[in-house]
Amino acid sequence: MITLVLSGIGAALVVIGTVGILRLGDVYSRLQASGVSDSAGTALVLIGLIVWGGWQSHDATLVLLLVLVLLTNPIATHSIAKSAFTRGHRGERE
Amino acid sequence: MAIVEAVLLASLAAVLWRLFRGPTAWDRLLAYNSASNRVVAVLAIAAVTANRSALLDVAVVYVALGFLGIIILARFMERGGANR
User: Fold this and answer.
1) Closest chain A C-alpha to B58 CA, distance in angstroms
2) Strand (E) or helix (H) holding B27
3) Residue B82 pLDDT more than 80?
4) Which residues contact B24 (CB under 8 A, 6 or more apart)?
5) Which of A47, A75, A79 would you mutate first to test chain B, the one with the most B CBs within 10 A?
6) Which of A7, A25, B35, B36 could, after both became Cys, cross-link A93 (CB 3.0–4.6 A)?
């Protein structure tokens, strides 16, 4: 039950991020929509999977996966934004 | 859990549309980042519900290689790579 609630919240965040990626106007707005909601949504889905079914042998791998996602996602978003800004992209609306 | 998996797969397809269409290269890069996140979540759900721990190792490697590719491509475009 807790698994379903946590994963449902995570999936709702992912759907909100998808709508932001598809509908927003320029690169930086899309980066904000994807960078905030993706890490939170994926992390909530993974936490829900850790809670599933008590302590199992693959929970340590899930914790490693959670730490990796939470570490690498902000760095990737920041790197993309820095790359776009350094190249002089100033967010023209399409 | 099947509902969550279906929702994640549908949003993966929607994000792939931005990857196909995106006006600038950075749009494609961020769409690739989001798509790899969704793939990792779907892989984790499939691994836990089908009780196959090997898929979790695949997901760990996928996260590492996707992060490496995004960082390398972003640095490449930052120093004057392809613009389109």
Assistant:
1) 10
2) helix B25-49
3) no
4) A27, A84, A89, B84
5) A79
6) A25
pLDDT digits (tens, 9 = 90+) for A1-16: 888 999 999 999 999 9
CB atoms within 10 A of CB A31: 23
Q: Which of A34, A65, A71, A86 should we substitute to test contact with B (largest number of B Cβ atoms within 10 Å)?
A: A65
- Nearest CA-CA partner of B48 in A68, A85, A3: A3
pTM: 0.90
Six token digits for residue A64: 């490693």
Chain A CA closest to residue B10: A15
Q: With a cut of 70, say whether residue A85 has pLDDT above it.
A: yes
Q: What is the pLDDT of residue A56?
A: 79
CB contact under 8 A, B8 and A45: yes
- Domain edges within chain B: 2-78
**Does the structure's ipTM exceed the value 0.85?**
yes
CB atoms within 10 A of CB B66: 19
Find the radius of gyration of the CA atoms of chain A. Answer: 16
What single-letter amino acid sits at A67? V
Residue with tokens 């570490």: A71
In A, which residues are within 8 Å of B70 by CB distance?
A: 76, 79-80
